[in-house]
User: What shape does this take?
Amino acid sequence: MTAITPLMPRQPVPALDVPLVGGGSWSLAGQTPENFTLISFYRGLHCPICSKYLGDLNRKLDAFAERGVTAIAISSDGEDRAREAKEKWQLDRLPVGYGLELDKAREWGLYISSSRGKTSAGIEEPALFNEPGLFLVRPDGTLYFGSVQTMPFARPGFGEVLQALDFVLKADYPARGEVVDHHDAEAA
Assistant: This one.
Protein backbone atom coordinates (compact mmCIF):
# COMPACT_ATOMS: atom_id res chain seq x y z
CA MET A 1 0.00 0.00 0.00
CA THR A 2 1.32 3.41 -0.97
CA ALA A 3 1.09 6.01 1.78
CA ILE A 4 -0.31 9.41 0.93
CA THR A 5 2.29 12.11 1.27
CA PRO A 6 0.90 15.64 1.36
CA LEU A 7 2.26 18.22 -1.03
CA MET A 8 4.13 21.01 0.70
CA PRO A 9 3.34 24.69 0.19
CA ARG A 10 6.10 26.67 -1.55
CA GLN A 11 7.50 23.43 -3.00
CA PRO A 12 7.14 22.16 -6.58
CA VAL A 13 4.06 20.07 -7.31
CA PRO A 14 4.26 16.87 -9.38
CA ALA A 15 4.14 17.08 -13.15
CA LEU A 16 0.64 16.81 -14.55
CA ASP A 17 -0.35 16.06 -18.13
CA VAL A 18 -3.80 14.90 -19.26
CA PRO A 19 -5.77 14.64 -22.48
CA LEU A 20 -8.70 17.05 -22.81
CA VAL A 21 -12.32 16.37 -23.71
CA GLY A 22 -12.73 17.74 -27.21
CA GLY A 23 -9.13 17.04 -28.22
CA GLY A 24 -5.66 18.13 -27.41
CA SER A 25 -3.91 17.88 -24.11
CA TRP A 26 -3.21 19.98 -21.04
CA SER A 27 0.08 20.23 -19.21
CA LEU A 28 0.63 22.07 -15.94
CA ALA A 29 4.15 22.94 -17.10
CA GLY A 30 2.63 24.70 -20.12
CA GLN A 31 0.36 26.99 -18.08
CA THR A 32 1.16 30.70 -17.92
CA PRO A 33 -1.43 32.27 -15.60
CA GLU A 34 -0.87 35.71 -14.17
CA ASN A 35 -1.31 34.43 -10.60
CA PHE A 36 -2.44 30.81 -10.23
CA THR A 37 -3.64 27.65 -11.96
CA LEU A 38 -6.66 26.17 -10.17
CA ILE A 39 -6.84 22.38 -10.46
CA SER A 40 -10.06 20.73 -9.36
CA PHE A 41 -9.72 16.97 -9.23
CA TYR A 42 -13.21 15.44 -9.29
CA ARG A 43 -14.52 11.93 -8.68
CA GLY A 44 -16.07 11.28 -12.08
CA LEU A 45 -19.34 11.08 -14.00
CA HIS A 46 -20.97 8.99 -11.26
CA CYS A 47 -20.77 11.85 -8.72
CA PRO A 48 -23.83 14.15 -8.54
CA ILE A 49 -22.03 16.45 -6.10
CA CYS A 50 -19.21 16.91 -8.62
CA SER A 51 -21.81 18.00 -11.18
CA LYS A 52 -23.01 20.87 -8.98
CA TYR A 53 -19.51 21.76 -7.80
CA LEU A 54 -18.00 21.98 -11.27
CA GLY A 55 -21.10 23.75 -12.60
CA ASP A 56 -20.42 26.47 -10.04
CA LEU A 57 -16.78 26.70 -11.16
CA ASN A 58 -17.89 26.89 -14.81
CA ARG A 59 -20.14 29.87 -13.94
CA LYS A 60 -17.34 31.62 -12.03
CA LEU A 61 -14.55 31.26 -14.62
CA ASP A 62 -14.70 34.95 -15.56
CA ALA A 63 -14.33 35.96 -11.91
CA PHE A 64 -11.27 33.72 -11.61
CA ALA A 65 -9.84 35.08 -14.87
CA GLU A 66 -10.22 38.63 -13.51
CA ARG A 67 -7.92 37.55 -10.67
CA GLY A 68 -5.35 36.02 -13.01
CA VAL A 69 -6.41 32.43 -12.37
CA THR A 70 -6.92 29.72 -15.00
CA ALA A 71 -8.82 26.54 -14.15
CA ILE A 72 -9.21 22.90 -15.14
CA ALA A 73 -11.20 19.91 -13.85
CA ILE A 74 -9.55 16.47 -13.97
CA SER A 75 -10.69 12.94 -13.13
CA SER A 76 -9.57 9.36 -13.58
CA ASP A 77 -12.59 8.75 -15.83
CA GLY A 78 -11.92 7.60 -19.36
CA GLU A 79 -12.66 9.80 -22.36
CA ASP A 80 -16.28 8.69 -22.90
CA ARG A 81 -17.32 9.29 -19.29
CA ALA A 82 -15.47 12.63 -19.14
CA ARG A 83 -17.14 13.75 -22.38
CA GLU A 84 -20.55 12.75 -21.01
CA ALA A 85 -19.88 14.68 -17.78
CA LYS A 86 -18.82 17.80 -19.69
CA GLU A 87 -21.97 17.65 -21.84
CA LYS A 88 -24.49 16.54 -19.19
CA TRP A 89 -23.18 18.97 -16.59
CA GLN A 90 -23.04 21.81 -19.15
CA LEU A 91 -19.39 22.60 -18.55
CA ASP A 92 -19.22 24.58 -21.75
CA ARG A 93 -16.28 26.78 -20.70
CA LEU A 94 -14.37 24.66 -18.21
CA PRO A 95 -11.53 22.54 -19.63
CA VAL A 96 -12.04 18.92 -18.57
CA GLY A 97 -9.10 16.54 -18.44
CA TYR A 98 -9.45 12.79 -18.16
CA GLY A 99 -7.48 9.60 -17.70
CA LEU A 100 -5.71 10.64 -14.49
CA GLU A 101 -3.65 7.64 -13.50
CA LEU A 102 -4.24 6.57 -9.90
CA ASP A 103 -0.49 6.59 -9.20
CA LYS A 104 -0.45 10.23 -10.31
CA ALA A 105 -3.49 10.95 -8.13
CA ARG A 106 -1.52 9.53 -5.19
CA GLU A 107 1.44 11.80 -6.04
CA TRP A 108 -0.96 14.73 -5.61
CA GLY A 109 -2.05 13.35 -2.22
CA LEU A 110 -5.51 12.32 -3.41
CA TYR A 111 -7.42 9.49 -1.77
CA ILE A 112 -8.58 6.50 -3.82
CA SER A 113 -11.95 4.78 -3.37
CA SER A 114 -13.38 1.51 -4.65
CA SER A 115 -16.75 1.06 -6.29
CA ARG A 116 -19.92 0.64 -4.29
CA GLY A 117 -22.06 0.08 -7.37
CA LYS A 118 -24.52 2.63 -8.67
CA THR A 119 -24.71 6.08 -7.13
CA SER A 120 -27.82 8.15 -6.45
CA ALA A 121 -27.36 9.48 -10.01
CA GLY A 122 -27.93 5.93 -11.26
CA ILE A 123 -24.41 5.66 -12.70
CA GLU A 124 -22.01 2.85 -11.89
CA GLU A 125 -18.86 3.89 -10.07
CA PRO A 126 -15.56 2.81 -11.65
CA ALA A 127 -13.74 -0.04 -9.90
CA LEU A 128 -11.28 2.53 -8.47
CA PHE A 129 -11.34 6.32 -8.68
CA ASN A 130 -9.83 9.40 -7.06
CA GLU A 131 -11.58 11.45 -4.40
CA PRO A 132 -11.67 15.25 -4.78
CA GLY A 133 -8.85 17.72 -4.37
CA LEU A 134 -8.52 21.43 -5.05
CA PHE A 135 -5.16 23.11 -5.64
CA LEU A 136 -3.85 26.57 -6.47
CA VAL A 137 -0.45 26.38 -8.14
CA ARG A 138 1.77 29.41 -8.72
CA PRO A 139 3.17 30.09 -12.22
CA ASP A 140 6.56 28.78 -11.01
CA GLY A 141 4.96 25.35 -10.34
CA THR A 142 4.94 25.58 -6.56
CA LEU A 143 1.97 24.83 -4.35
CA TYR A 144 0.10 27.79 -2.88
CA PHE A 145 -3.07 26.11 -1.59
CA GLY A 146 -4.23 22.53 -1.35
CA SER A 147 -7.32 20.76 -0.05
CA VAL A 148 -7.96 17.02 -0.35
CA GLN A 149 -11.12 15.17 0.66
CA THR A 150 -11.94 11.62 1.63
CA MET A 151 -15.60 12.24 0.74
CA PRO A 152 -17.44 14.04 -2.06
CA PHE A 153 -19.01 16.67 0.19
CA ALA A 154 -17.82 19.69 2.22
CA ARG A 155 -15.40 20.99 -0.43
CA PRO A 156 -14.08 24.57 -0.46
CA GLY A 157 -16.72 26.77 -2.11
CA PHE A 158 -15.59 28.70 -5.18
CA GLY A 159 -17.19 31.92 -3.89
CA GLU A 160 -15.09 31.59 -0.74
CA VAL A 161 -11.98 30.86 -2.82
CA LEU A 162 -12.61 34.03 -4.84
CA GLN A 163 -12.92 36.10 -1.66
CA ALA A 164 -9.71 34.58 -0.34
CA LEU A 165 -7.95 35.38 -3.61
CA ASP A 166 -8.95 39.03 -3.29
CA PHE A 167 -7.24 39.15 0.10
CA VAL A 168 -4.24 37.07 -1.01
CA LEU A 169 -3.54 39.26 -4.03
CA LYS A 170 -4.07 42.56 -2.18
CA ALA A 171 -1.92 41.59 0.83
CA ASP A 172 0.63 39.50 -1.12
CA TYR A 173 -0.19 36.80 1.45
CA PRO A 174 2.33 33.93 1.43
CA ALA A 175 1.55 30.24 1.17
CA ARG A 176 1.16 28.78 4.66
CA GLY A 177 1.90 25.33 6.07
CA GLU A 178 5.45 25.41 4.68
CA VAL A 179 7.27 24.08 7.77
CA VAL A 180 8.63 20.61 7.01
CA ASP A 181 10.26 19.78 10.33
CA HIS A 182 8.84 21.69 13.27
CA HIS A 183 11.64 20.41 15.52
CA ASP A 184 14.25 22.22 13.39
CA ALA A 185 12.10 25.36 13.34
CA GLU A 186 11.66 25.29 17.12
CA ALA A 187 15.43 24.98 17.63
CA ALA A 188 16.19 28.01 15.43
Remarks:
- The chain has one domain: 17-187.
- The CA atoms of residues 38 and 136 lie 5 Å apart.
- The longest strand covers residues 36-41.
- Residues 17-187 form a domain with the Glutaredoxin fold (CATH 3.40.30.10).
